[in-house]
Amino acid sequence: MIQPGIEDAIKKIVQSTLNLPESEIDSSTNLRDLPGVESIKILRIVASLEKKFDVRLDDQVVFRVSTIEELAGAVSKLVEERRTP
Amino acid sequence: MNTTGQKTPRPGEGWSHGVTNTHYDQDPRLFQLFLDPSMKYSPGLFPEGNEDLETAQHKKMHFIARQLGLKGGERVLDVGCGWGSLVCFLAREYGCEVVGVTPAPRQADYIRARAARLGVAGKVRIEVGHFHEVSLPTGAFQGMTFVGSITHFHDKPGTLVRAWSLLKPTGNVYLSETCFCNAAKRREFESRPGTKFVLQDTFGWAELLPVSDYVRYFEDAGFSLRGLVDLTEEYFRTIELWSENARRNRQALDAIEPDLCERLLKYFEISNAGWGYTSKQYALVASKRR
User: Fold this and answer.
1) In whole angstroms, what is the distance from residue B94 CA to residue A67 CA?
2) Do residue B277 and residue A44 have CB atoms under 8 angstroms apart?
3) Among A39, B40, B98, B173, which is disulfide-ready with B85 (CB 3.0 to 4.6 Å)?
4) For residues B17 and B152, is the Cβ–Cβ distance under 8 A?
């Protein structure tokens, strides 16, 4: 279950890291297909996310990430786990 | 930055200092345009978090001296001494007799002039050449440093064997280096374009290992290990400040070589993106004592 706000926050991070207009970014877009993207930029997006949500994503997610939706799902899951006693 | 078109040797194919020099033996003015005034080309230390670059580098050099257990007046060997920030610092602040080794003649000239300017010419000796080829006294040094230099050496185990023989029986070594996070990361990322851009295109030749390899080389050479420090965040902050300096001096950098500023920034960006994901910066301290 993707938490509201997380996907939007990711879109904002992607937008500012890649200098893209909002219209270019869709939840199901593969990040690797976005203009101006390279693995370095994806790492920077992941680092910003980890900082913002205070989570640590698994290497499988970090190095294999494809869509915003998928990233949001991974972050949501970690945030959720933190709240569950 | 490697503009001389020299062929990069395969690991084990002779010394790497010819190609490494394509980076380090450039005009010091290039480096003055992004480093701090001490010209230290390695991470600073930011215990307060808001230090400027010069202060952070100064604190870092005191940190290295503490790690080596220096009280003052000892003989110290700095292998891969760059533009002599640490050599001159230890001679001035700790009264040490310091020998610096660099394969880059320009660096040697720069340091000698600098030591004279600082009034420590009598305490500083610079040997030009490869560490394995220059003549150095056996069992003579209380402290030895490899600050970001061993990455350029083909024979890393042999380098630490020689280090052991040059130290006094109670001597200490401080070695700091960029490492892969682990062996699996090395296998996966060693041949990626970004890695190649930094290690081959920028430096001529360098090789990153996981820190566990260095631990083993220290053990095999007979050392006792005394400490390991994670300096990754310190390097990230240092490179952010270098990038700021480079951007501020874009015109002057591009006057040296077209597009130089962008290439530097790309090297900084790749380096900083990888910290903690593919790479780590570690310092190891080892001792010859039993």
Assistant:
1) 55
2) no
3) B40
4) yes
Topology of domain A4-16+30-83, CATH: 1.10.1200
pLDDT at B11: 37
Tokens of A62: 């970090």
Contact criterion met (CB < 8 Å) for A40 and B277: no
Q: Where are the domains positioned within chain B? A: 28-288
pLDDT at A5: 87
Q: Is B222 left (phi over 0), alpha (psi -120 to 50) or beta?
A: left
Assigned token pair, B211: 């820190």
- B105-125 per-residue burial string, b: 16 or more CB within 10 A, e: under 16: ebbbebbbebbeeeebeebbb
Q: Which residues of B touch A44 (CB under 8 A)?
A: 273
Q: Residue B24 burial (CB < 10 Å; 0-12/13-18/19+)?
A: buried
What would the CATH number be for the domain defined by B28-288? 3.40.50.150
B181 with B280: CB under 8 angstroms? yes
Cα torsion B191, B192, B198, B202 to 10°: value is 70
Q: What is the model's pLDDT at position B18? A: 53
pLDDT of A66: 83
Domain coordinates of chain A in residue numbers?
4-16+30-83
Chain A nearest C-alpha distance from B1 (Å): 20
Share of chain B above pLDDT 70, in %: 92
Q: Is-contact B100 B125, C-beta < 8 A?
A: yes
What is the least distance, in Å, from the CA of A80 to any CA of chain B? 24
Assigned token pair, B10: 């395969």
Per-residue pLDDT of chain A (85 residues; tens, 9 = 90+): 777 789 999 999 999 999 988 888 888 888 888 888 888 888 999 999 999 999 999 998 888 888 999 999 999 999 988 887 7
Is B194's CB within 8 Å of A46's CB?
A: no
Residue B3, pLDDT above cutoff 50: no
Q: Tell whether B277 is within 8 A of chain A (Cβ).
A: yes
CA–CA dist B192, B205 (Å, integer): 15
Token readout for A19 is 């200098």
**Which burial class, exposed, middle or buried, applies to A54 when counting CB atoms under 10 A from its CB (0-12, 13-18, 19+)?**
exposed
